């Protein structure tokens, strides 16, 4: 993954930056997930469908906000070891899972799913 292609991200506009695409199927303009606790240079972004397939997880209950009912019967946005890929506004990296600002969460939640 080369974040140099991203450029800035405007959270007020629900559009994805250049280069924000699924590593497996090349889907763009949709929510993407990234590996949890993985160096930026080793990140492969995946759409919901590809992440679920790789992690062998059923996400058929996923709602428009990117939440689905896990096997523990809780709503979650994590697909196995994948967490929402929310770029910083500068487009130079991704927010840590527990430090995403509200505007970034809303930006990601308002992108469409690819199931």
What does this 3D model show about the protein?
With 115 residues, the chain is largely without helices or strands. The chain has one domain (1-108). It is built from 2 helices and 4 strands. The protein has helices spanning 48-55, 102-109; strands at residues 33-35, 68-69, 75-76, 82-84. The strands form 2 sheets. It has a two-stranded antiparallel sheet with strand order 1-4. Strands 2-3 form a two-stranded antiparallel sheet. Strand 2 (68-69) and strand 3 (75-76) form a beta hairpin. The longest helix is centred in the middle third of the chain and has 8 residues, at 48-55.
Rg over CA atoms, rounded to whole Å, is: 13 Å
What's the main sheet like? 2 strands, antiparallel
Strand order of the largest sheet: 1-4
- How much strand content do the residues show? 5-15%
Shape: globular
Instruction: Count the DSSP helices.
Output: 2
Mean pLDDT: 90
Proportion of residues in helical segments = 10-25%
Secondary-structure content class:
little secondary structure
Task: Give the number of DSSP strands.
Answer: 4
Question: How many structurally independent domains?
Answer: 1
Order of helices and strands: EHEEEH
Give the uncertain stretches in residue-range form: none
């Amino acid at each position: 993954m080369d974040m140099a292609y991203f450029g800035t991200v405007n959270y007020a506009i629900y559009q994805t930056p250049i280069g924000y695409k699924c590593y497996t199927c090349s889907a763009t303009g949709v929510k993407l997930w990234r590996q949890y606790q993985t160096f930026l240079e080793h990140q492969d972004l995946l759409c919901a469908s590809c992440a679920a397939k790789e992690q062998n997880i059923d996400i058929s209950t996923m709602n428009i906000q990117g939440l689905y009912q896990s096997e523990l019967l809780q709503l979650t946005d994590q697909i196995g070891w994948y967490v929402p890929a929310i770029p910083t506004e500068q487009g130079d990296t991704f927010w840590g899972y527990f430090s995403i600002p509200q505007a970034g969460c809303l930006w990601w939640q308002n992108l469409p799913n690819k199931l």
